[in-house]
């Protein structure tokens, strides 16, 4: 089905070879090589309103990121379709992201996103306020039986506490989904991929999201914050970072619980919910 959709796109100017690309649980990805040797990545995905994934927003963010030099060039878009340059190289593993040689590079990439993307953004764009998102997930879960039924009221109460504790924030346009698979190394430099959840948000969310998605320990957290801010973080930054980590892990937990109900993809969402709930509880216990 997916390959037929790719082959039917009006973008191609010659014969093509198509193969699936791994990764992504909100879309389908394919590599394409044209008979002139040019190689492309094709991304197929419909809007997913229950997760706030709207493809007009993703495509606008990806176009801006390409113009800012953060992501590969975009050659063609249509509703639910995006064709970009297929980069040589590979995604980094969590261990590689945490490595002392790479962590400053990743911090610089996030900083470039936060400070360099703004001039290239155009048209209507979404916000990504994690506490609102968590409340929305909570409302969806209350309307359906889920694996979090017994804990949902407590989790949403914690969400309200975290929002109050975070307080005022610096708002930037951020990526908001810094899984290791979205940081790509072509052998010379790093790129950011997959802008499904991009939107205006606290600058600390991306940092906390990167840490919570890549197995950071206290030493990695400290190195990341110092690299991003150019100096060791003060107590207020540390507290906001920890709060943002908890909020990020809670969002991932609720996202997975909703996906258990709504997604048709072949993925063990129930196990993913349990895994992220355990990580959230550990982070919350360490918040103090």
UniProtKB/TrEMBL annotation:
- Where does this protein come from, organism-wise? Acidocella aquatica
**Name of one Pfam family that matches:** Choline_kinase
What's a Gene Ontology MF term here? kinase activity
- Domain of life of the organism encoding this protein: Bacteria
Name of the protein: Choline kinase
Which UniProt keyword terms apply here?
A: Kinase, Transferase
The record ties this protein, via InterPro entries, to: Kinase-like_dom_sf
């Amino acid at each position: 089905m997916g390959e037929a959709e790719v082959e039917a796109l009006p973008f191609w100017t010659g014969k093509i070879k198509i193969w699936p690309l791994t990764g992504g649980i909100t879309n389908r990805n394919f590599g394409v090589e044209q008979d002139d040797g040019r190689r492309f990545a094709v991304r197929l995905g419909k809007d997913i309103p229950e997760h706030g994934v709207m493809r007009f927003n993703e495509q606008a963010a990806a176009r801006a990121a390409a113009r800012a030099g953060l992501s590969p060039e975009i050659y063609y878009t249509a509703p639910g379709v995006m064709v970009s340059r297929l980069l040589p190289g590979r995604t980094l593993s969590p261990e590689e992201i945490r490595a002392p040689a790479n962590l400053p590079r990743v911090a610089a990439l996030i900083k470039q996103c936060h400070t360099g993307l703004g001039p290239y953004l155009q048209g209507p764009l979404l916000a990504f306020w994690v506490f609102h998102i968590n409340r929305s997930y909570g409302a969806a879960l209350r309307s359906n039986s889920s694996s979090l039924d017994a804990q949902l009221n407590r989790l949403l109460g914690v969400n309200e506490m975290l929002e109050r504790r975070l307080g005022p924030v610096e708002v930037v346009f951020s990526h908001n989904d810094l899984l290791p698979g979205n940081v790509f190394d072509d052998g010379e430099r790093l790129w950011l991929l997959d802008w499904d959840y991009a939107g205006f948000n606290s600058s600390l969310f991306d940092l906390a999201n990167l840490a919570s998605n890549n197995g950071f320990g206290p030493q990695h957290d400290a190195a990341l914050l110092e690299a991003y801010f150019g100096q060791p973080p003060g107590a207020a930054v540390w507290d906001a970072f920890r709060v943002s980590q908890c909020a990020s892990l809670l969002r991932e937990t609720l996202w997975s619980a909703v996906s258990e109900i709504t997604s048709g993809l072949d993925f063990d969402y129930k196990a993913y919910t349990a895994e992220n709930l355990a990580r959230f509880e550990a982070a919350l216990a360490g918040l103090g």
